[in-house]
Write the structure tokens for this entry.
Amino acid sequence: MTTADDRQKLLDLILDVSFERREVTLASGKKSNFYLDLRQTLMRPLGVELAGKLVLEKLQSGTPVDAVGGMAVGAVPLVSAVLGAAARSPESQGLLGFFVRKEAKGHGQTKRIEGNFKGGDTVVVIDDVITTGGSTLKAIEAVENEGGKVAFVAVLVDRQEGGRENIENAGYPVVSAFTKADLLDA
């Protein structure tokens, strides 16, 4: 169980190593007044521990799921963090993980979804950050094309740039640990 102190520690870490107030052009082409690179947080022991616990808690409060996964590369560290937290949680030790490639592999089994996923699974699609929601929606499409059912979407940070609305308008609830407001108001 995460505490308010754990949540604040993770926010402090994000602000310290992943967040900069400066103008940037996002992948969508839009301008933003802050830069966010959550890999800097998720590639640190404390970041992995706290993010995994916080997102796992979001998963445990919703529909029971078989697996968590998302689009490579952004979701992969967070998937690993959640699975690490699940290993320490008796009710979640059966949780599995996967990731979605941007396109199917050209050799071997030519899979688009790698890891522990099979048709019929109920999953949560996760991502480190959502802006427009485009990559999350692509991951959802890949999961559903392979026969999976998406229970909801969980993200570490919602940039509040329309992504949540785009995903929810497509029919998928979104939960986030933090929002742009949390970052800018800190």
Summary: The longest strand covers residues 149-158. Residues 49-179 form a domain with the Rossmann fold fold (CATH 3.40.50.2020).
